């Protein structure tokens, strides 16, 4: 395995700022390959006690190979920083695109949902649960394809049941709010409307809405019955009643409206 150092890269403009460091556009000097370099400060990682989380993120993401998962090519460190060598997603965060557009038409939403479900189906087949799916952690590649990024909360879980409270409040499913064990079904709560499904003015109200699965559709959006059917099957209080990712890939609305086909379904399955 190649040993990397900062000398191997030309550093360009900043792409984003995170809690523990920054992400820069970069070019590998020998091959001229364009990539993203995530620079994390060791002192900040140690202060927050998340070194183990970073090691887990690197270990998991470096082994995943799927067109809708951001590649982690490698990593290196010096006395004060850790560097992650990542695939560059030229079109930025899905969150930014959603803010710009307000909401997406249903064919575009269905395509993103199909790509996301396909990538999660692959992750779950590898016993990996992401646990923090949200628009800010989804990037867009050169052709507008979805890329799951930021595996900081992810776990490799052969035993399948977890009980840690993690992820981002607005997107947490009921079983995590209530401190119950959870499995890969925590990755199945999505929304089409341009904002979190359980968003409220206070943290307490958000917790309450999540635990009661209280959500409404904005009156100004003409959302089809097929899309509402999918959302209703995903936003279930009991994870055993929640549509699994394979079910998302086969859902009639996704199959009909998505402009792309899944890669993880076997030939002959609905959705193929």
TrEMBL record:
Its EC number is 2.7.11.1. PROSITE patterns: PROTEIN_KINASE_ATP, PROTEIN_KINASE_DOM, PROTEIN_KINASE_ST. It catalyses: L-seryl-[protein] + ATP = O-phospho-L-seryl-[protein] + ADP + H(+); L-threonyl-[protein] + ATP = O-phospho-L-threonyl-[protein] + ADP + H(+). Residues 183-202 are annotated as: Disordered. InterPro entries: Aur-like, Kinase-like_dom_sf, Prot_kinase_dom, Protein_kinase_ATP_BS, Ser/Thr_kinase_AS. Residues 183-193 have a biased composition (Basic and acidic residues). One of its GO terms (molecular function) is protein serine/threonine kinase activity. The active site is at 132 (proton acceptor). There is a cross-link at residue 134 (Glycyl lysine isopeptide (Lys-Gly) (interchain with G-Cter in SUMO2)). SMART domains: S_TKc. Keywords: ATP-binding, Kinase, Nucleotide-binding, Serine/threonine-protein kinase, Transferase. ATP binds at residues 19, 38, 87-89, 136-137, 150. Residues 9-254 form the Protein kinase domain. Pfam families: Pkinase. It is an enzyme of class 2 (transferase). Belongs to the protein kinase superfamily. This is non-specific serine/threonine protein kinase. The lineage of its organism: Eukaryota, Metazoa, Chordata, Craniata, Vertebrata.
């Amino acid at each position: 395995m190649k040993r990397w150092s900062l000398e191997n890269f030309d550093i360009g403009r900043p792409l984003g700022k995170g809690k523990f460091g920054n992400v820069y556009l970069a070019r590998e000097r020998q091959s001229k390959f364009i990539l993203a370099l995530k620079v994390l400060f060791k002192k900040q990682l140690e202060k927050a006690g998340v070194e183990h989380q970073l090691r887990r993120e690197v270990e998991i993401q470096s082994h995943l190979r799927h067109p809708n998962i951001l590649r982690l090519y490698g990593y290196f460190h010096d006395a004060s920083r850790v560097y992650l060598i990542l695939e560059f997603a030229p079109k930025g965060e899905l969150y930014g695109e959603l803010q710009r557009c307000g909401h997406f038409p249903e064919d575009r939403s269905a395509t993103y949902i199909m790509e996301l479900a396909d990538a999660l189906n692959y992750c779950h087949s590898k016993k990996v649960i992401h646990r923090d799916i949200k628009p800010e952690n989804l990037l867009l590649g050169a052709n507008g394809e979805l890329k799951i990024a930021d595996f900081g909360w992810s776990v490799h879980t052969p035993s399948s049941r977890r009980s840690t409270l993690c992820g981002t409040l607005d997107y947490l499913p009921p079983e995590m709010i209530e401190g119950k064990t959870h499995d890969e079904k925590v990755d199945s709560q999505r929304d089409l409307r341009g904002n979190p499904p359980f968003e409220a003015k206070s943290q307490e109200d958000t917790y309450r809405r999540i635990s009661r699965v209280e959500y409404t559709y904005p009156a100004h959006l003409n959302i089809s019955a097929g899309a509402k059917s999918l959302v209703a099957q995903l936003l279930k209080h009991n994870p055993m009643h929640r549509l699994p990712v394979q079910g998302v890939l086969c859902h009639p609305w996704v199959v009909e409206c998505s402009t792309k086909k899944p890669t993880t379904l076997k030939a002959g399955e609905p959705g193929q």
